[in-house]
Amino acid sequence: MYTGTSASPGIALGKALIYEHEELVIEKKEINSIEEENNRFDKALEISKKELQEVKEKALKELGEEKAQIFEAHLMVLDDPELINSTKSKIKSENLNAEFAFKGVINQFIGIFEAMDNEYMKERAADIKDVSGRVLRHILGKTVVDLAGLEEEVIIIAPDLTPSDTATMNKEKVLGFLTDIGGRTSHSAIMARSLEVPAIVGLKDITKKVENGDFVVFNGDTGEVMVNPDTETKEKYQSLKDNYDNMKKDLKELIGKESISADGRKVELAGNIGTPNDIEGLENNDAEGVGLYRTEFIYMNRDKLPTEDEQFESYKEVLEAMNPNPVVIRTLDIGGDKNLPYLEFEKEMNPFLGYRAIRLCLDKKDIFITQLRALMRASKYGKLRIMFPMISSLEELLEAKEVLEGVKSDLDAENIEYDKDVEVGIMIEIPAAAIMSDILAKHVDFFSIGTNDLIQYTTAVDRMNEKIHHLYSFFHPGVLRLIKMTIDNGHKEGIWVGMCGEMAGDRKIIPILLGMGLDEFSMSPISILPARKLIRSLKYEEAKRIAHTVVTMGKSEDIEKYMSEVLD
Ligand code: PEP
Ligand code: MG
């Protein structure tokens, strides 16, 4: 048995599919005949084209025209006579093996396109890189796993999954994920919860322990994985899965009920989403709003920035679907573990402490303004709340607000309608912001505490690093104190305070947050009904006492133990 960090609840049983972005080794080799190399090359092109054609058709059906266009661009590269002829003449004139000749030509092409001072040409370089990887794999006879085109149900086993992997995969066919790296708040874990598929992360070397086609069973709640288990174990997991599915059905009885404590303290239970596709999850789990719309996914899986109109459509879709419930839309939070290939970030020593989120938006104001315009235009279709991420100082907040005011004046001048009462808030995810939340509260309509980052910055524990994952704790007294301070400071200024970090949906933390007076809890939609069930069983007065007790305790471990006892 292998054990990792539980990332998304549920039980999975099924066939393993190993998914690795493997580095290809392209070597110069002796060849038998030029004809043989030409054939290897032609065959690889043919298979790649056939695959891309299928992926394109699937993307068109399931993801829309825009995403399908990416694959159309890839197909065009494969038909480029320049690329094909240059490779073949290199094979012939220099007696080269197909992969080495092709790689040489590709590098030349990429070099030329990247050097051009033209966005369109730079994008072509990205397409060529992407497609050439597929062709090279086929020349070398390596299998290319296409997550968008999965044909049968599988459990995906990967070193890590990027947000773009999870966004393009065929969700119907994925029974669960297992990854080598990552923690509970890494984005692969968050995506697994939003897809409502069971997942375990931080299994260290599971990709080495499992082979394609092995039968795997795992429990997303306990973090336990078994490979090729005996019949008895399989049956045990099948019955656990049946119980889990039944429990999920029972929770559905809470749909339409209020999120209110047994003694009358009402809170808002909202959902975290990444794309308009997640609306279904919000509806199925009866979310009372959206507490965090991570807009960066609109910017991913594409080869250029989304236009104002494209963004407007996504925001409008969510606002309309949730209306009259509120939707907190967070402005672009890129950087850290989320990159945009077309923005060409420089490599940084500490990306989580680097050029990301509001820092990038205030530096590249055109990107920021486009997003704010799209947001304000969409505001008349529902109840929008705008939120700035990664605020670390009053200066940043004031500057961001000034840009927003500029956008409003422009829209006024253009006679474009928008909601004049849009609330503006910030994430409290940097300790400096929590510490000075008394001052920041005077300038915003709400706070939303981003504990995923607040924990990593407060305790200096990288949220992605499984080696030190035992140090990353929801129960750290330093973090709990900062949360209390933020809630108290917000309330003193009369603003509401929410939380959109993963802690907000944790069973052992919810009583503490309720007792501290948190107004809004935003979580993966899958956690909403269990949270409602718990809150309805708690008394606010008792929760206040619990919150008071934990902030006087010194050890995370003791707080966690105390909370387990409270809930028993
Ligand atoms: C957070 O940091 O708690 C948060 C919600 O933002 P993200 O996980 O996207 O960094
Ligand atoms: Mg964050």
CATH architecture name of the largest domain: Alpha-Beta Barrel
- CATH superfamily of the largest domain, called what? Phosphoenolpyruvate-binding domains
Small molecules bound in the structure, each named once: phosphoenolpyruvate, magnesium ion
Report Rg.
25 Å
According to CATH, what is the topology of the largest domain? Answer: TIM Barrel
End-to-end CA span: 28 Å
Quick overview:
This protein has helices at 34-62, 65-78, 81-94, 98-115, 119-139, 163-168, 187-195, 206-209, 231-251, 279-284, 296-299, 308-322, 357-363, 365-378, 394-413, 431-435, 437-440, 451-459, 477-492, 510-516, 528-537, 540-550, 556-567, and strands at residues 2-3, 5-8, 11-18, 154-158, 174-179, 199-201, 215-219, 224-227, 268-273, 290-294, 326-330, 383-388, 423-428, 446-449, 496-499, 520-523.
Describe the structure.
The protein folds into three domains: 2-20 and 147-250, Glucose Oxidase, domain 1; 34-140, PtsI, HPr-binding domain (Enzyme I, Chain A, domain 2, Orthogonal Bundle), CATH 1.10.274.10; 253-567, Alpha-Beta Barrel (TIM Barrel). 46% of the residues are buried. 49% of the residues lie in helices and 14% in strands. It has helices at residues 34-62, 65-78, 81-94, 98-115, 119-139, 163-168, 187-195, 206-209, 231-251, 279-284, 296-299, 308-322, 357-363, 365-378, 394-413, 431-435, 437-440, 451-459, 477-492, 510-516, 528-537, 540-550, 556-567, and strands at residues 2-3, 5-8, 11-18, 154-158, 174-179, 199-201, 215-219, 224-227, 268-273, 290-294, 326-330, 383-388, 423-428, 446-449, 496-499, 520-523. A hairpin with a 4-residue loop joins strand 7 (215-219) and strand 8. It is globular. The chain has 23 helices and 16 strands. An eight-stranded mixed β-sheet has the order 1-8-7-3-4-5-6-2. It has 568 residues and is α/β, with parallel strands linked by helices. The longest helix is centred in the N-terminal third of the chain and has 29 residues, at 34-62. The structure holds phosphoenolpyruvate and magnesium ion. The site of magnesium ion has 4 residues, from helix 18.
